[in-house]
Amino acid sequence: xxxxxxxxxxxxxxxxxxxxxxxxxxxxxxxxxxxxxxxxxxxxxxxxxxxxxxxxxxxxxxxxxxxxxxxxxxxxxxxxxxxx
Length: 84
Hints:
This protein has one domain.
């Protein structure tokens, strides 16, 4: 479960990848898990809000915009998980 209370899959996962040092020596493997679907939805919503001329954003509005973006993401996840 995620912080939103939904079972949220990861998007854009990749891996495992070899890690190399500055000299090219092998260090180990790392798996990149990507973003949660909630983070992806929030980023998409925030991008739309920031690009709409009718929604001018001042620097002191940033935390409120992020809050709205995650509320939108949670609504999208709720709808996605709803039974038809």
